[in-house]
Amino acid sequence: MSEYPHDAMIPAGNAPRVIASAAWHSLFWLVFANAIGVLISMLLLFPALNRLLGEWTYGRWIMVHLNLELYGWMSLPMAGFLFKVYGADRGPLAQWCRPVLWVWSAALAVGAYSWLTGHSSGKLFLDWSGYARIFFPLAMIALWLQLALSFARAGKTATLAARSAKLLGLVLLLIVPIVMYIASSPGFYPAINPDTGGPTGASQLESSLIIVAILLMLPFGLTRRKNGPARMIAIAWAIMVAEFILCFALGRADISHHRPAQFLSLGSLLIWIPLTPAYYAAFEWRANTRLWRIAFLCWWSALVLTGWVFFLPGILDHFKFTDGLVGHSLLAMAGFTSSLLIFVLVQLLGEGGWIFNRTRSFYGWNIAVLVYVLLMSSAGWREGFDPTFTIVPGAARNAVYLLRLIVGLVMLASSLDWLIDATTLLREPTLVYPAQEAAA
Amino acid sequence: MLRGDRHPSGWQGASLVAITYVYFLIFAQFAFLQRLASLGVAGAHLTAVMAAMAAAGILFSLLTPRLSLWPSPELRLRVGLGVSGAAAFLSLLPLGLAASIAVSLLIGAGLGLLTVTLVTHLRQWTGNRHPLLLVGLGTGAGYLVCNFPPLFTASPRMQAATAGVACLVGICVTLWKSPLPIADAAIPSPQPAAPFLRVLACFTALVWLDSAAFFIIQKTPELKAGTWEGSIHLWANGLLHLAAALACVWLLRRRGLSLVLSASFLALGVACILLLDPHRAALASVFYPIGVSLYSVALVAYPALLAPASSIAERGRIAGWLYAIAGWSGSAMGIGMSKNLGSVPPLFVLAAGAVILLPWPLNFLLQRKRELALTVAVLLAALYLDRHLIAVHPSSPLTQVERGRRVYISEGCINCHTQFVRPNSPDVLMWGPVEPIQQLRQERPPLIGNRRQGPDLAEVGGRRSALWLKLHFYDPPEVSGASIMPSYAFLFRDERGDDLVSYLDSLHESGLPQHLAEEENWHPSSSAIAAANANDGERSFQRHCATCHGAGGQTRWEAHFKRLPPDLAVGPYLHLSPSGDDAQRRDRLAHIVKFGIPGTDMPGHEYLSDNEIASLSFWLSQRIGQLSQNR
């Protein structure tokens, strides 16, 4: 039985307005960040263009690009998911969801401006500094308050287990803005792999397990289990707990990837390649999520496998600091995370999920990501032998970067396609308004 | 069946719009002024004559909807055309001041009567099928005819006569059977209709901009040469007008009036800014006709077809106020401003933009009060926390190196440069020595980075002189031919540049002497030496060395060098042993190419492959050897 039985009462063709708003905000930032991505790949090909940008040079745009992808495109769909889980998208409090999204977007705009004007903490993906470093956690707290109030308002309508899980979730979510503030402090820095300067195997395992935890938790907020024994679900959670214990045992010291304990423990993640599809098969999904569900599971498998291979001694030493790892990051963000988020949004939007299911944008996006990853991997392979491949650009490097620019344009076009459709969806009078839904 | 259905083309409507525009543009706005100049009417007299025209125009625009005389629209239109035509023919006579004022009054009165009557009853002549398209065609055709080179370059008398004849043609058009009767209903707009006062303010701002720009172009020979001279230019202007007029029709149908007015402002605003510099007049001549035609179509279409009006009388009043205030007053103010200032100040363009564009976001925000309130509340809360609770002020002023490190972070250098020499890897020879991890952890934060678009900088202070770093920041390709780094010359407008150089200069470890010894032990691989190729070497020289060591290589900064980089075609070669054999010389050159000369401004090229270095040193050695033999 679905936790929200009135879902079934929403007529076909309708989609929840709050989720559509969250999708629109996240897509807006995706398009914006992708456009900047195109700009920076042009700057690498035609450095003379920097002269047109005044003080807003390449290095500053990179900060804007990376952070907007992470905190805009990749975070706002999760805000939509949380609205749904805590029931904030229904009833009288639903009218405050859009203001919360505005605050989040305003924080991103302030952040973007601060990075462009030279304010940064100096930490990748945690560049929040000065006023923006306070504003963004406050935006997170605004979201948290909306969720907490919705949770309190719902009272005892859900089961004890569901309420306990949500309460635990609220406690964890309250920690996030505090962690964000502390993590962007220059005085805090995670464990360092002394042979590469990058993360250790233990910290890679830890962050990967947090992703796994999110993957395991998502279906409970999106749909219901299929009838029958839930053995696969129990196995998955048990393995995850075991891996967290392993991770805890590894500690947080500055340890090299050459230590077998590091790369072997990271290899334990490979179990999730068969386990995740099996786990997701244990839940019911809307028919229109199929394409993106397959896509995200494929990207996830590729990410886990290549993530481990790229960490192995010899291979990491070859690819570190090269375009090879840039390609791998794109596989993680544009391949796996993006397809997962779109899958979540399609599930949440119901019939409104059509905005992501156009053939041209689906294949455009996924093929472009694949080509990008292959191009950067090949460039990284060359660069690993010869750093001049990048530092002193020649015809081969320029050809690779030109192709990268083209696939970047395809990704931008795909995201623009989604944004235009999301705008159309928001204008549809058949979208479910909070008041209508409450009446239903 | 309505009579309108038997005469669906509506060509009369398009013709009458075109004739009215031709009369106004080629005669009232252009030839009459030239004619007055040739009659010696200037200064205060000219002002009086033009004021008479404006006053009559305003008066008749406002009176026309209330006139009970000639209740038939056809008859009233004929009178308007007749008066206008008569004024054009009268201007051919040798006029004195009083007569000029009288003719000017006639022009204003005739135009007021003609324009307001035409747009009030336009559907009688356009029919109901494609009235918007016909207005667009009429407007575009009017501008195209005016830009027809023989007419545009004709004498003012010829232009006046043409305008008079056009009015007579207009009277004939009105004698044709008009498609009557027509239901008067506004064409539905894709956007909600804006309040009349806002539309009036937008049109006034646009006419103001247009008239000011027109007057300035007319009075400034350089601008006139760049915008209106030459047949090709005139044809291009005319076709741009026509295309923009048709585009306006499409936009009005699909996006509504607000977007047309905004687009028109953007085009006219850009044109006005470009006109500040005569060198950009040609570019302005692209934007100006687009902006003018966009709003000109709307100026007819709005009162005639788009404005919501409950009766013909109300439509007439809308047209009257629009033409009296936006048309006549806006035009007079634009001309007045350009006479007094000689240009359209950017601030005025901004103000016009605020009038036209601001209602959009304002409207949007007014519909999002809750969103706005919460956002402002959180913004203010963050401001309060930032100022009063969290802000930390450093107890002592930062050193230059610390300030430089902040610049390094601000500019996002970390996104292209790492600061981490991987132990037991080729990094050590290229970028070393290795920094102990404990020392790295003391940095706040460590600036390790994760991508190398450029070299690692952990030990850059040991490899590059402060002068070289500064030169490179100013113009990277000037000292490093292949560099893709952007110029950071702007940092040297204040202390940031020197701070950054100071920081980078400080990046070197105590293990440097030992590292220098390791460098000494390096030699190109024997396979690279065997494969060395002089042609490749020369290419590498041109790419990496000629920027400083070619003939006249480094002159811009010569006063700053400890010793100017020598032209390698001439020497001297202070760091080469004169007694060494060729192999020794090649090895020494290879060292210099790869690691530079410590203690001098000569940098290394650590990232080059053994093959490139061997070829480069081979070519250099050959060249230096030949030079020694010749001496």
| Proportion in helices of chain B | 55-70%
Q: Indicate the radius of gyration of chain A in whole angstroms.
A: 22 Å
Tell me which CATH architecture of the largest domain in chain B applies here. Up-down Bundle
If you consult CATH, what is the topology of the largest domain in chain B?
Growth Hormone, Chain: A
Identify the overall geometry of chain B. elongated
Overview of this protein structure:
The complex is a heterodimer of chains A (440) and B (631). Chain A is mostly helical and 440 residues long. Chain A has a domain at 1-187: Up-down Bundle (Cytochrome C Oxidase, Chain A), CATH 1.20.210. Helix content of chain A is 70%, strand content 0%. By secondary structure, chain B is mainly alpha-helical. Chain B has 30 helices and no strands. In chain B, helix 4 runs antiparallel to helix 5, helix 10 runs parallel beside helix 13 (257-274) and helix 29 (582-595) crosses helix 30. Chain B is elongated, with a radius of gyration of 38 Å.
What is the topology?
The complex is a heterodimer of chains A (440) and B (631).
Chain A: H1 17-45, H2 58-73, H3 76-85, H4 97-116, H5 131-154, H6 160-183, H7 201-222, H8 231-250, H9 260-267, H10 272-280, H11 290-311, H12 315-319, H13 323-349, H14 359-385, H15 388-391, H16 395-427, H17 434-439
Helix pairs in contact in A: 1-2, 1-3, 1-4, 1-16, 2-4, 3-13, 4-5, 5-6, 7-8, 7-9, 7-10, 10-11, 11-13, 13-14, 14-16
Chain B: H1 3-6, H2 11-38, H3 43-63, H4 73-90, H5 97-120, H6 122-126, H7 131-146, H8 149-152, H9 156-175, H10 196-219, H11 221-227, H12 231-254, H13 257-274, H14 281-306, H15 312-341, H16 346-357, H17 359-366, H18 369-390, H19 400-410, H20 427-431, H21 437-441, H22 460-463, H23 466-474, H24 476-479, H25 496-505, H26 512-520, H27 526-530, H28 534-549, H29 582-595, H30 610-630
